[in-house]
Design goal:
Length: 117
């Protein structure tokens, strides 16, 4: 289970690590698009866009369907719930640590005021 989850996370986060791929997801969130349209929108070659789409497909973030000569892309089935839960756990951990740090800083400020009077 842990190994599967780690591999899944690696694939998802690798797909999301690229600005172009994040842009493609944003574009597909508004409407389905052909690979050709996406390549034109992002001013890249068709081959380059196909590679980006392939990475997004492997992560389950995009699906494609070929009708005739046109391959249409749409958002995939992955809604990143597990990734969001993983991130949320660390966000809460960091929030708790920063809250503790804030308390220490306030305590030091209070001591500094007391010692200065």
């Amino acid at each position: 289970m842990v190994q599967f989850q780690q591999t899944h996370f690696d694939t998802s986060f690798a797909a999301l690590s690229d600005a172009t791929r994040r842009g493609v997801l944003e574009q597909l969130g508004r409407s389905d698009a052909s690979i050709t349209h996406l390549a034109e929108t992002f001013r890249m070659t068709l081959t380059g866009m196909k590679k980006h789409i392939s990475v997004l497909e492997q992560a389950g973030l995009v699906t494609t369907e070929k009708v005739g000569r046109v391959r249409t892309c749409r958002l995939g089935v992955s809604r990143l719930e597990q990734e969001m839960e993983w991130i949320e756990r660390y966000r809460q951990l960091w929030d708790a640590r920063f809250n503790e740090l804030d308390k220490i800083v306030e305590e030091l400020k209070h001591r500094e005021k007391s010692d200065g009077q």
